[in-house]
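Consider the following input, taken from an annotated entry for Carbohydrate-selective porin, OprB family (endosymbiont of Ridgeia piscesae).
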Amino acid sequence: HPGLTLLLASSHGLADNDGKYGQLFDLGDDGKGAFAAAEAYGYFGWGIWRLGAWSNTADHTRLDGSSDQENNWGLYGVADGGFGETRWNLRLGWADASVSESGDFIAITLEQPAGPATLGAGIARTGASSNLTGGDDSLQAELYARFELTGGVQITPDLQWIRNSGLDGSGSSHDRSIWVAGVRAGYTF
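Applying the prediction step yields:
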């Protein structure tokens, strides 16, 4: 059955408010605002879909260099499904390119049980805003194997390739590519 989720929050969290809880609710402070989102969802024969929109009324500086302050907004869609034992996830998103450094996003992930592990592969592209001077799209690909241990504990070794990661420590956000190997631990209860 379909449904609707609504969210209203401050545009700033505790770390943005000098650690004072009372400032979380002062939406009239300079530069602050509200974050609101609405998401519709529903089920289809082999999965779930979600479509949403969000708005952030905090002051955002325009990327074209003009002195105007603007709100930020975005739209997104998510679908999860499967065929046989294979599971998939698709995500799409758009944001206001006049203030968001990332104007669009698309990602797909596939998972397949294989003996003692669940094997997964994913690829994601984050598009630089057309208003961002010198901006470049980012691309990330990942392979992983999730092993279910005992009592809800999971260990997931992974290998990622990221183009234009900005993770090289040089201060440049245009590093051409980087390889990252890691291990994630999880607990499901």
